[in-house]
Structures are given as C-alpha cells and as structure tokens.
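Model it.
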Amino acid sequence: MDISANPCEDFYQFTCGGWVSENAKKNFNSILIQLSLTADEKIQELLTSDYKINEKLSKEDQEYDKKTFELLKKSYNLCLNKDQNENFKVQNYDNKYISNFVNKLNIYGNIEGKNNADKLANLVAKIDSLGIDLFITFVFNSEYVDNREDKALLVILNEGIYKYAYLENSEEIPEISLHYKEFIKKVLSVVNNNEKEIEEKLEIIYEIQQKLSDIKNINPDALQEEDTLFDYNINGIIFKGTADSIDTLNEKFPFINWKLYIEKMVEYYGLKGVDVNSIIFNNVSPQRIEYLNNIIHKMDIYKLKVYVEW
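Modeled.
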C-alpha cells in the first residue's frame, strides 16, 4: 500500500503503490498496465454479479457492506449503457444515462433548511449518499503520532474543486477562458437544451471555478497560534493540522451546517450509537477550507445548486 495517496482520488496507487515501488525496476509499464487491467476486470466482475455475504463480518457490518455494494452497483448501472455495449467499454457511455442520473437528483427542487448553510448540508448529504464527494472528504483516523486512541475523522479538502488551476493564467492567455467555457457548455448541453439557461449557468460556473482555482496557492500548513493542533504521520513525515469539534467547525466555516451534514450521513449509513458531538475532526488544510468558506458563504442558493450540478 501507499498511504501517502488519497484513496478517493487514486485508489489504485493507494492499494498497490507500495508493491509497484518495490518492483519498479523490472518492466514497470507492462506490470502497471497488467495490474490496472486485472483490477478493472475484478471490479467489473463484482459489479455485474449479485452481492455475496461476507460471513466474517458482524450482522451490522454486513448490512453496511451490502448497502455500499448496492450504491456502487446503482451508480455503475446508471451511467453505463449496457444495451449498446456488452463489453462495458468506457468510450460507449451514453449521454441519456448521465442526463437521467442528474435529473433524478432533482437539484433544483425545494431543499429543506432555514438558511443556506442548512440547505447546502441537506443537498451535499444527498449527493454524497451517491458516492460523490463534493467539497470535503472524510477519512477515518484512529491513530495519532503520539499513539493516543482517540477516534477521529480526517477532514480533507477535495482537490477536484480546484483542479482547473490553470484558469489563474486566463488573463495572460485568453484562449484558456474561451476553451474552458466551450467545455462547460458541452457538458451542460448533455442535461439541458435551453440555450439561455446554459449560457447563464456557464457564467456562474466559470466565475466560481476561477475563484476556486486560487486555492492551490494557499499554504495548507499555515496554522493559527490559537488552534488546537495534532500531528499525523504519512510515510514517516510528520504533518500538523487542527483538531476541532463539530461546533468549532460550524463556527470557523459556516458555509455549511457541518453537524446537520454529518448527522444526515450517519443516518444514511445506519451507524447506530454515534455521538456526533464527541467526534474529533482533524482538519489537515484549515486555511484552504477557510478560503472555500469565504467563497461559498457569500453565494445565493441558486448559484450553489448550479455549482453542485456541475
């Protein structure tokens, strides 16, 4: 394993990176390709068959395991056009499956909540329940450098929200904006044929994405003196982050109702007996999340919905 990799972004590297590094001297490319093909075949085999009960798990864990499997299979079947392609090749995705998937989310419908933070919590929980991380990824962390046994969740900013970092050069290279807007328009056209709406959403998405692209320039290790700090170890390198309660997260980053969001996810996964108030949240990039908070906290709910759809 390579625990320095984020499993949500590169699951292959996370699970096989250690083995690959040990065998890199011999036919690295052929080994990598073969492992990737084998992994794809196994995943396809699992998701095209029925769920198999793991007898080694407790009854409660079996229920959780089955729910996770059904969620993955639902997403797999929804996005893949089985009718036109029995071999499940990636290039034969059909736009209507993507369109149906997005439309069933009903993002623009009424969302419960007395304010935008509540509404965003409900909306993000709804999207996350489908296995799609929007802003934040939570990773269970039960091991500190000092070997304490506190159970905690690592709070990791989803790097996908600022992956278009090259937008910061759009003033010097105007073609970047032109091509990126063309890309946005083509994607939106998959689920919408209203030209006026597409143009309106295009400008909203571009504006938000351009602001988010600046996140990469923020030092993720910049911490405040008053913060409660914790150390975490990745491949022998010690990093620092903040250790916050759910109430502290709500105070620091009020763009979303963190407590409501976590409660929704706990409820969705059927995790009984979880006291949200007792969870410690290890924030590994507080300055970047603060920047995200400052952007989203000022948006109206419609713009948030447009970005979530994107």
